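Project channel, design review

CF: Before we commit to the Hermetia illucens constructs, I'd like one complete example in the thread so the newer folks can see what an input/output pair looks like. Taking Cytochrome P450.
RD: sounds good, go ahead.
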Amino acid sequence: MNTFLCLVLSIILAVFLFFKKKYSYWKDRGVKYVEPSFPMGNFPFVRAHFKDFIANLYKYKENSPLLGAYIVTKPVVIAVSLDFIQKVLVSDFSSFHERGMYANEADDPLSAHMFSLDGERWKSIRTKLSPTFTSGKMKHMFPIVVEVADRFNDTLASIVKVETQLDMKDLLGRFTTDVIGTCAFGIECNSLENPESMFRHYGRKVFDDPHLSPFMQMLVIQYPKLGQKLHIKVLSPDVAEFFLDSVGKTIEYRKKNNVCRNDFMDLLIQLKNGSDLENENAKQSEKLSLEEVAAQAFLFFAAGFETSSTTMMYCLYELALNSDIQERGRQEINEVLLKYNGQLTYEAIKEMSYVDQIISEALRKYPPAVFVMRKAVHNYNIPNTKSIIEKGTEIFIPVYCIHHDPEIYPEPEIFDPERFSPEQVNNRHSMSFLSFGDGPRNCIGLRFGRMQSRIGLITLLKNYRFTPGPKTMIPIIFDPEKAVLTPQGKMFLQVETI
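CF: and here is what came back for Cytochrome P450:
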């Protein structure tokens, strides 16, 4: 019995000394930090949204460019000064160009997409894909998105005849699924007509039924090499098989039938064949494999349909609560369309500045990604201090907290598109709006995302009026299980045909 007690006490002492040593990391380096708690560090022990974890740290931001914190025992940096954030994302990007995301190309090839890759692999694919999202390419895809928006309008018109209190979260998800399915795969998904279409089913499964729990997601991000050794997959096998099969069949069909649609898949096929998207006369570049093409197509699908649909949903939610803003947006749409004979053209949406301000304000108040993450690729001296961020340390940039900081955006819970008038934007720090990130590793698809959201919102405001209904969630409760900032459950609004 004495031997057993000694063994137990020795284990307890060893655990205590281990955590005591780990939790002295920031103190030993003279960095301001938030006191951790055993055994989760600063991470909440009870279930909470990740934005709440960072918000509990951000409140200690005074007089420091960053804060030290702990996820379990791993030291991480919370960047809180906009000047320091600019260094991380832009001016000192070469020191922080990695994201530190988990990818397992051997067991889970679709996880090795541009968002999760680092180093030369990321740089190579980013360079190849950058010409895909130029203004010229957006003009080619514009008619495809408008065509889907017209079908969306037809579908909604028939639904409103039967019922007027609608789940806009689901309807907008079906709209963006059809847009991305068409542009990324050249496939008519028909999610608007058939909510149980295959693309909608697997798109929902990626976000609503993730293969890994939030704890496992954090585990593989914090310990990626362990995850790879354990052959942990980000995607469930049926999801991976569906997207790989869809890409393979699309490429085979287009090659066999000589199909050219000027969409995202056409551009990926060119890269698969070794073509240069910027210079047709250039010598062949390194070809992308089928798995690499499928991974980028999957990223475009997963990132494009969910973020754009939730952004439009939040726009409609706020417009339903603020009828004056809704009417002003609708007035601008009608005035501009009158100049273009009622036709929604690429040039017309460029003139709808207030609609764009509405979208920007929704992205401020409800940023899809509540944080941006970077990783130090070598030791980095913190400006104006003697302290160092060591190689491999993760830096969390608290997007949601910045967007809700009253020192940056007075009365941040009020929805006010005037915050994004040219005058107010010019008076703010360039890092005060980070819904698409910033610097060389910003969101590559931001032009497409904005275009898709504009077309969808314009189509809806032109034809329908939105108001709160008995089942409208006020205030919004966010789902703590979702990586993207999304409401828990459905988003009902009252919809009336104009």
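RD: helpful, thanks. The chain has one domain: 2-497.
CF: The CA atoms of residues 22 and 74 lie 8 Å apart.
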